[in-house]
């Protein structure tokens, strides 16, 4: 039986006191798991949505070694429009695709917009003198390319040891991110696809909906 996703990530990080970026932290569910897997780690969590961040702060605001950031990450520093959804975890800087059968089946609809702050990984790290990220987890609803373009300085130094990204293959948003989109950004810096897990397939039509992909620097 293959190892669980969390066992894979813990093995790849390989130490209890790493620096972890939880990008798209939602309500802090994954942050709490990381605190168990890596009991001495420093976690920088990012969540741009006002309502979600309020709940995240209530849940983890006084937690030691957890730094909460009310912001999205992208390829430029500034402000952006976030498209809210009836399922809060589906909010994105990308608009929903109204023709998505998956969204329709789950009754996911746009419910409004809000203006959010956007930072880049390189800028954030430079301001805080962070020179290495042991685990970069991206759950950003299609904005993986922008997040990685905003980390080119760290990537060029192989300063990110493990990248875990949720990739949505179904056309849930106005743009779809594919393996090739991520690999084109990572390949020049010597990163390769290591494994995939949490693969979701449509029950009725067999369409690949989404998966998690792990990328590592080539030794």
Write the layout of secondary structure elements.
Elements: H1 5-13, E1 19-23, H2 29-37, E2 42-46, H3 50-60, E3 66-69, E4 72-73, E5 78-85, H4 101-105, E6 110-119, H5 121-128, E7 135-138, H6 144-149, H7 152-156, E8 163-168, H8 179-186, E9 191-201, E10 208-217
Parallel strand pairs: 1-2, 1-7, 2-3, 4-6, 7-8
Antiparallel strand pairs: 5-6, 8-10, 9-10
Structure description:
With 219 residues, this protein is an alpha/beta fold. It contains 8 helices and 10 strands. It has one domain: Rossmann fold (3-Layer(aba) Sandwich). It has a 7-stranded mixed β-sheet with strand order 3-2-1-7-8-10-9. Strands 4-6-5 form a 3-stranded mixed β-sheet. β2, α3 (50-60) and β3 (66-69) form a beta-alpha-beta unit. The longest helix is centred in the N-terminal third of the chain and has 11 residues, at 50-60. The two termini are 27 Å apart.
Distance between the termini: 27 Å
Low-confidence stretches: none
> Main sheet, how many strands, which sense, barrel?
7 strands, mixed
Content-based structural category: alpha/beta
Number of domains: 1
Give the C-alpha Rg.
Answer: 17 Å
The CATH architecture term is 3-Layer(aba) Sandwich
What is the average per-residue confidence, as pLDDT, rounded to a whole number?
Answer: 96
Q: Roughly what fraction of the amino acids lie in strands?
A: 25-35%
- The DSSP helix count reads 8
Overall outline: globular
Short description:
This protein is 28% helix and 30% strand. It has 219 residues and is of the alpha/beta class.
What characteristics describe this protein?
seven-stranded mixed sheet; single chain; three-stranded mixed sheet; 30% strand; alpha/beta; Rossmann fold; globular; 219 residues
